[in-house]
Amino acid sequence: MNTSLMEMVPKHLMGRVQNSYNFVGTLLQIVLALSVGAVAHRISLVGGFAILACVYGLSFVASSWPVSSPVAEEIAAQ
């Protein structure tokens, strides 16, 4: 995914986009870890695992969406 993102970004913005992407990804990991920990501690362990299952399920659905990009079309044409 990171490579596909970088292929769409102009060369003069690559560093900024990659740093922003990494920052947001790290921030989301921290938020997910804290929320799962809070739910598992205060509500139930099953609730924490349910949050993780939902995140993995959404990731699966998002990764199975078809993507059309110029690079993919160029590779398919060869």
Identify the notable features of this structure and list them briefly.
78 residues
Would you summarize the structure shown here?
This protein is mainly alpha-helical. It has four helices and no strands.
Stretches with pLDDT under 50, minimum 5 residues: none
Number of helices: 4
Main sheet: strands, sense, barrel: none
Task: Provide the number of structural domains.
Answer: 1
- Average pLDDT metric: 85
The geometry reads as elongated
The percent range for helix content is over 70%
| Distance N to C terminus | 22 Å
The class by helix and strand makeup works out as: mainly alpha
Task: State Rg.
Answer: 17 Å
Order of helices and strands: HHHH
> How many strand units?
0
Portion in strands? under 5%
Overview of this protein structure:
- The structure is a single chain.
- This protein has 78 residues and is mainly α.
- The protein has one domain.
- The chain has four helices and no strands.
- It has helices at residues 2-8, 14-42, 45-63, 70-77.
- Helix 2 (14-42) runs antiparallel to helix 3.
- The longest helix has 29 residues, at 14-42.
- The model has no long low-confidence stretch (mean pLDDT 85).
